[in-house]
Amino acid sequence: MAIDLLVRGVTLPTGGRVDIAVGEGKILGVEPAIDAEAGEILDYSGCLVSPPFVDPHFHMDATLSHGIPRVNRSGTLLEGIQLWGELKPLLTHEAVRQRALSYCDWAAAMGLLAIRTHVDVCDDRLIGIEALSQVRSEVRGYIDLQLVAFPQDGLYRSPNARDNLLRALDIGADVVGGIPHFERTMEEGRRSVSDLCGIASERGLMVDMHCDETDDPLSRHIEQLACESQRLGMHGMVTGSHLTSMHSMDNYYVSKLLPMIREAGVSVISNPLVNIIVQGQHDSYPKRRGLTRVPEMIKEGILVGWGQDCVLDPWYSLGSAEMLDVALMGLHLAQMTSESDMRKCFDMVTTENAKIMRLDDYGLEVGASASFVVLDAADPVEAIRLRPDRLLVVAKGKIIARRQRVRSELRIPGRPESVDRRRG
Ligand code: FE2
Q1: Which of 239, 336, 344 lies closest to 293 in space, CA to CA?
Q2: I need a surface site. Which of 119, 201, 282, 314 has the fewest CB within 10 A?
Q3: Euclidean distance between CA atoms 106 and 125, whole angstroms
């Protein structure tokens, strides 16, 4: 097969310098030295190559809406939901589509090539699902977009949410969402988990719920989620997002819960940038971090990823499609500072998230889809430390972003050399 693109001298996340050959959208070879003709040959000697960044938890219907109609003053989750309620009637199909496409441009430039977005289905117009279904088709050539039918205001608490969710699935949402801790009672939350897992099981769909995104240690809907996954045989198909109440739970109860989550094949997504801002808001001091128990889950054998959650929306006033910011914040909050833990944090924004999203064809193996990113860093830990430029982004065999390597100079009087200050 003809080689369209040959990338030379790149370093794999696991170490080892290789050349990568690409043809007809696939990876044709990953070897220490490939001596062959190619349509284009690029030398990135010493730079890190990675499979694409993956964000398994995002809200693309809300992104880039910061300040419309106002900003979140308290920073709480509840004011964010209230503010989103004020914004929803103002949304139009075209406005949602345009903001989402702008965000996808940012993502593509950063090598973030797979995104799972929750999409609010509580507005009867289903503007988010309609607009983002269109976006999913428009970006298909470079970004894999999964849509979660998400009853933001509660499956039972919002009048038409359940019917709307079913309509959204009929339109083509990929994943069933939920928000049990926001239902009126613990009992209704528990019932919503069972109901939604049943709907997903019947349709052969994945489940990804906002689950226990609260500091209340008695919010235990993850227990029901694990139970339903086990009961319905949905191992590998179910994800609990946030699980921040686990931060505050009794240790004895958690010692029962962790094996249950693992046995049920439930994966977990933690969203450190937003959790550290939204959680602990009702505390004085000490203030809880509100992050779920990530290292303990990993040690238990549970699949865990880092998600971004929000960029410039009612809940979060920052963000830039930089998954290495997410990894950096998660690493700090979870105190994952050993060499192996830091490398794990890089995997959690790439390969682990890809497993959660059940992406086919992902990775740097021969035969996989030729999607990868070359970073101006030597290895995954340096990438998290520097959050460096993406020198090359290849999506499904095509170069979609390139950036010249920047070399800055530092001229200190009395010292002859100029050095690259970023690596100082
Ligand atoms: Fe979320």
Answers
A1: 336
A2: 282
A3: 28
Distance 85 CA to ligand 1 centre (A): 15
Select from 173, 159, 181 the least CA-distant residue to 241: 181
The average confidence (pLDDT) of the chain is 95
Pairwise CA distance, residues 49 & 374, whole Å: 4
Residues 26-35 as b/e (b if ≥16 CB within 10 A, e otherwise) read bbbbbeeebe
Structure tokens at 259: 């094996």
Q: Which residue has the tokens 């359940």?
A: 162
Q: Where is 148: in which H helix or E strand?
A: strand 144-150
Give the span between the Cα atoms of 388 and 316, in whole angstroms: 23
Q: Whole-structure pTM over 0.90, yes or no?
A: yes
What percent of the chain is predicted at pLDDT more than 70?
Answer: 98
CA of residue 5 to ligand 1 center, whole Å: 38
Residue at 67: amino acid letter: G
Distance of CA 88 from the midpoint of ligand 1 (Å): 16
Which is nearest to 159 in space by CA: 193, 130, 177, 184?
A: 184
End-to-end CA distance of the chain: 44
Contacts for 182-186: CB closer than 8 Å, 24+ residues apart: 182/81, 182/153, 182/154, 182/157, 182/210, 183/154, 183/155, 183/156, 183/157, 184/154, 184/156, 184/157, 186/218, 186/219
Instruction: Output the pLDDT for position 419.
Output: 58
Q: Across the strands, what pairs with 395?
A: 398
CA distances from 246 to 185, 284, 307, 341 (A): 19, 19, 17, 21
Is 213 marked active-site?
Answer: yes
- Catalytic annotation, pick one of 213, 223, 228, 322: 213
Gap between the Cα atoms of 103 and 319, Å rounded: 11
Contact (CB, 8 A) for 244 and 215? yes
Compute the distance between CA of residue 413 and CA of residue 397 in angstroms, rounded to an integer: 48
* Placement of tokens 């198909």 in the chain: 237
**Residue 150 C-alpha to ligand 1 middle, in angstroms?**
9
Q: In 266-397, which ranges are E strands?
A: 266-270, 304-306, 372-375, 390-395
DSSP annotation of 140 reads T
Q: How far apart are the C-alpha atoms of 205 and 149, rounded to whole Å?
A: 11
- pLDDT one-digit tens code per residue, 87-115: 999 999 999 999 999 999 999 999 999 99
The 10s digit of each residue's pLDDT in 295-318 is 999 999 999 999 999 999 999 999
By the 8 A CB rule, do 120 and 61 touch? yes
